[in-house]
Structures are given as C-alpha cells and as structure tokens.
Amino acid sequence: MRRLFKGFGFVCVLAVAAAAPPPEVEEEARKRAYRAREAVRLLGDPEYRTREAATQELRELGEDALPSLREATQSQDAEVRHRAHGLLVAVLKAAGKSKSTGLVMSVVLAHEFEMGSPKGERQRQPDETLHPARLTRAFLIGTYEVRQDEYRKVMKANPSWFAFSGGGADKVKGRDTGPFPVEQVSWFDALEFCNRLSELDGFKPYYKLTHVKADKTGSITDATVTVLGGTGYRLPTEAEWEGACRSWTITPWHHGRTSGRADMNAKLLLPGGGYSGPEEYHLGRTERVGSFKANRRGMYDAHGNVGEWCWNWYGADYYEKAPADDPKGPDKGTHRVVRGGSWLVSDLSGRSASRGALVPGERSYTVGFRVARTP
To answer: Are 50 and 42 contacting, i.e. CB atoms less than 8 angstroms apart?
Structure first.
C-alpha cells in the first residue's frame, strides 16, 4: 500500500522572476571565470610558490572557480587533480551557508551507490528495486530540515502544526519551536521557499511558478512549474536524497541495521547524548532539528522527525527502468516523492530506501523538506 500523507495549509507569496543581470555584471563574471581558468592551469606549475598562489586565487574566487575546478578533477596530472579536488571541497563547504538566514548545508561529492533495498531487507516494498545510481556532480544538501524560524524569516509566516500558533500548540507548550522543522507545507510551497531564499542570497530562482492556485490561507495548491536551472536553491531529487542519506552505507538505516538512532515513533533523545532504549518515550510530535546523531556526511534527521519533499514524481515501477546517471524520476505523475519517514510512522517505514508519496498540493503535519543547491 502506498504511504500517503495528509495535512493543512498556510500563507505563501509568489516570487517575481529575477531580472537579467546588467551587462557590467555579466562582464565581471566573464573576467572571474577567465581568472579561474588561468589559476587552474597553474596548479601544475613546477614552481611551488606559483602553485600556492594559484590555489589562493581559486579560494578567493569561490563559486566562480567551480566550473574550472570540476574539469581539473579529471586532469591527467596527479598534482592538478589532487589540488583541484581539495579546492572543490573547500569552496563547496564555504558556499554551504545561507547569507540571509544562516541555513547550513553539507557537501555531497559525485559518487555511485546502490539505490533501493536488497530482497532480504525487512518490510521491503515492491517499489524499492535495487539498482545502481550515479550522482555525477557534487552538490550541497541541507544539514538539517528547514526550521520554523528559517521559514518564517523567508516567507513571513509559520504554517506549522507544532508551533505556538498551530493546532498542536499544546504538544509544544513552553518550548521554543523555532529550531523545530517546519511542516504543513505543500510541494509547491517548498519550491516557493527555494525561490525566495535564492533571491535573498543573490541567486536567480531555480523555478518559475505560473497559473498559480491557492487555498483560502494562501497556500499554493497547484501551479505550472518550469525549471529554470542555475545555482539557486531547489529540492533534492530522490536519488540525491538517498545518496546523501546513505552516506556510503548499505544497511537499512544510515547508522546500521537497527533503528535506535532515529526520531521515528518519536524516540526521545536522552540526557548525555544517548537514545531511547527498551522503554521508549513517545512524544507524539516533532523535535528540534539535530537532536539525534548525524550520518557520516553530517546530515541530521534523515530518518524521522518529518518526511521530506523531493523533486521527483512518484512512479512505482520507475526503479526498474531508471537511468543510472542522475535520475530525475518519471516525466509525469499524480504524487511527488516524500522521503525519510516521520515522527508518526514506524522505524521500518523510515529506512534509507523507504519511499512515500503525497499529492503536491496537499500538506501534512508529518511532512517538511530540506533544500539542495548545485553551485
């Protein structure tokens, strides 16, 4: 049976498409790209001081150096390849914090992994066919699920059920819910957040939403979505989400073969940094992000807390025909993918391979999101 989530609405404002940059800005970008190419060329120079100067130049150029650095990681020169790889990681790490909100992101390098679950995994579903997936380009993904205070700063509203103004206020009485994950956002609302955050941080919006329909609260229930692309904030694809979650593991959960380190069925973090043991504490709500240990990529709450919207349409048989390189999901569908389980579902429904789905215009107090970005 497909796991669908239902929920509620909130206020959302449609972003205005960003204007084209003025000629002088484009000229400056071309100059910086040229400097990056020249500096990369000098990474293999015989003189140590020249190589160090080129390295420093590339650090200072930051994101403008990334296209040249990506090419250099494929160089035949071992020195160039080694330095380019280190610089690529360093620049991505430096880019992993929102200038306007402080939202932080973790680096996911290009890699190949086995997506889905092996036949012997407990509660494995028919839509989890094991298959190879390759993420061919390094990207950033939210270290945490988007928080209520971050969402409020960008959208000027907090739709969450588990907030002082929400329907679940009694569950969080006396708690500062700013660090709790935002929930009750539609898939369209998550895209709109990405666009508005992009504009605040000086990036072009990644999406364009037209023919927008909203409910009486202002939450977007339907829209025509066009992918503009670029370096702005976006939702991760399902493959990006699972690749980041697994963090080089092949076990049911990124921390191993048992679910003792996840906020599913609301296992409370105990004093001293441990996790609930035989006697579990069922909170019946979300918990502040980062309350449980991260995976090896530094990504928190991949299992539980709230389910997370992904870009893809859901397709039950998609894994059987998915391309290996950067799969984007089916071309059409009725539901968008939700990953990671939630505080409400069983631990087995929040495994690394578990797939959920929800109509994109619906909202749920079990579903939020984390952002991604490819500088």
So the answer is: yes
pLDDT tens digits, 166-207: 999 999 999 999 999 999 999 999 999 999 999 999 999 999
Name which residue leads in pLDDT, 112 or 29.
112
What is the pairing mode between strands 355-358 and 336-339?
Answer: antiparallel
Which pLDDT score, from 0 to 100, does residue 21 have?
Answer: 63
d(CA 298, CA 252): 18
Tell me the CA distances in angstroms from 312 to 32, 33, 201, 258, 366, one per residue in order. Answer: 34, 32, 25, 28, 19
Query: Is 299 within the bounds of a domain?
Result: yes
Q: State the Cα–Cα distance between residues 266 and 284, nearest whole angstrom.
A: 6
Backbone angles phi, psi at 338, to 5 degrees: -125, 130
Same domain, 193 and 87: no
Same domain assignment for residues 61 and 124: no
Does residue 7 register a pLDDT over 60? no
218 and 320 part of one domain:
yes
- What the block records as the tokens of 172 is 């969080």
Token reading at 117:
């679950």
Q: How many CB atoms lie within 10 A of CB 154?
A: 23
The answer to the question of residue 18 being in a domain is no
Question: Nearest CA to 345 among 263, 256, 251?
Answer: 263
pLDDT at 218: 85
CATH code at 162?
Answer: 3.90.1580.10
Q: Domain boundary residue among 94, 113, 141? A: 94
Domain of residue 64, residue span? 23-94
Residues 82 and 169 reside in one and the same domain = no
Give Cβ neighbours of residue 126 (< 8 Å, ≥ 6 apart). Answer: 316
Q: Which residues of 97-125 are buried (b: 16+ CB within 10 A; e: fewer)?
A: ebeebebebbbbeeeebebbbeeebeebb
pLDDT greater than 70 at residue 116:
yes
Last residue within a domain, chosen from 94, 122, 156: 94
82-88 — which CB contacts under 8 Å span 24+ positions? 83/43, 83/51, 83/55, 84/40, 84/43, 87/55, 87/58, 87/59, 88/138
Same domain flag for 264 and 202: yes
Tens of pLDDT, residues 54-98: 999 999 999 999 999 999 999 999 999 999 999 999 999 999 999
Over range 47-54, report the average pLDDT: 96
